[in-house]
Amino acid sequence: QVQLVESGGGLVQDGGSLRLSCAASGLTFSLYAMGWFRQAPGKEREFVAAISWNGGRTYDADSVKGRFTISRDNAKNTVYLQMNSLKLEDTGVYYCATDAKPLGSLRSTPPEYQYWGQGTQVTVSS
Predict the structure, then answer these.
(1) Within the chain, how many helices (H) and strands (E) appear?
(2) Mean pLDDT of residues grouped by 10 in the chain (126 residues)?
């Protein structure tokens, strides 16, 4: 079965950096677009970034443009989220996801994604 396992979360000060990883198994990773989402307490899950199956296209939410970078290594079945200049409002649980549609388009809403990881907590402190 498809498994997505996030790692790399933690506690970081305002302005700091973290790199999240998401290791995928149970699917032909190189065929599928991947996305990152986050959810803060009491808020809905929101889109962060997405990357195409070959890494040639990316799409970022306006709130993270210029600060976060999504990338992937198909040889390692892993997608990354490099987060720089972190702000208090970036705090939340970060999830990776895939729509599991071969060579699919970049998607930005949770219902369009079929498989999800368990999430990793990112906490930004002042």
Answers:
(1) 0, 11
(2) 97 98 97 97 97 97 98 98 98 96 92 97 97
